[in-house]
Specification:
135 residues, mainly alpha, 2 strands, 44% helix
């Protein structure tokens, strides 16, 4: 009699190797509109050639109306109104008017402020209503 031999087959357990996890794509950081403009402006500033300190210093400084008025009043013999001071300053070429329509009103207010703030040390003194003289 023939005997049957039992074959035992063993299954190899195969384990799947865990695949390395892919790194999640980096999210772009959100910037505010102001930060984006600043970053863009910084790039454009780098592209432009910078001026030297000598070139900036060569530009003459503009004389203020208040300084020009002090100069005119020291040479004037009589007290003047703010309107007359502005006319004299522009006639002498000490100051040029900007876009303002009433530089005399601005000058009047500035002289009043200086008198109130500096009192005895002010460059101007108010003689009468609307009339100023050099201190």
């Amino acid at each position: 009699m023939a005997t049957k031999t039992a074959k035992t087959t063993t299954k190899k357990k195969t384990t799947k190797k865990a695949a390395p996890k892919k790194a999640a794509p980096k999210k772009a950081t959100r910037t505010s509109a102001g930060a984006a403009r600043a970053k863009s402006a910084a790039k454009t500033k780098r592209a432009k050639p910078t001026q030297t300190k000598q070139a900036k210093a060569a530009k003459p400084k503009r004389v203020s109306l208040l300084d020009a008025a002090a100069t005119v009043l020291t040479s004037a013999k009589a007290p003047m109104t703010a309107k007359a001071i502005v006319e004299q300053v522009t006639a002498e070429g000490l100051w040029t008017s900007g876009k303002g329509k009433t530089p005399h009103a601005t000058l009047y207010a500035a002289m009043i402020r200086e008198i109130a703030k500096k009192q005895k040390d002010a460059r101007f003194k108010k003689v009468e209503r609307g009339l100023f003289a050099a201190a």
